[in-house]
Amino acid sequence: MRVGMVDSQVYALSFTSGALLLAEASVVVPVYLRERDWTRTRAAVEDANLLRARTVASGHRRAREITQRLSQLTEEELDLLAEATLDERAHLMWAAACRRYLLIGEFAEEVLRERFLTLSETVTHDDFDAFLLAKAIWHDEIAELKESTTRKLRANVFRMLVEAGLLGDDGRIIPSLLSERVAKLMDARTPSDLRFFPVRQAARGSKA
Which of 41, 125, 151, 167 has a CB 3.0–4.6 Å from the CB of 32, allowing a cystine? Predict the structure, then answer.
């Protein structure tokens, strides 16, 4: 551990593939709404191979990943997710990823939203690399990443941003037009999860 390290929370870094998992969510949420238990939900998904995995191992990985992300959402958010529009589903799944992975949430707040609020037009791969470099000062798990893993993490974060409608393929920031019901759910949390989106509403408890 680095001398002077003040942030003892270790970043989870298992988001190297899958992006937002929108298709997976549409399969798993109805199962959860029937079971109302994540252990039973995951077992049902795996036993019936509902995610159409080619191997048992990949089925376990995908089921674990989607249930871990969806479990970050509240019951009210999951009920909404089951009948939401495509944009609403994308925004809810982006929030789920930000909650599940602290690193993604901090990038959303400290880079994406901050650049939007300061009228910057883009977020680039260089911005992500600079963000990681700053985090590596306090986090050995970041400092010790292989270049190949860094590329996978970066690629998947940007793919998530594009799928969530927050970033164009050219890196241009797209202001979020959150529906009233999604915005209300995001802002009900403390700190407000509006901090994960390029919006101008004040996000309670945000660093921005």
Answer: 41
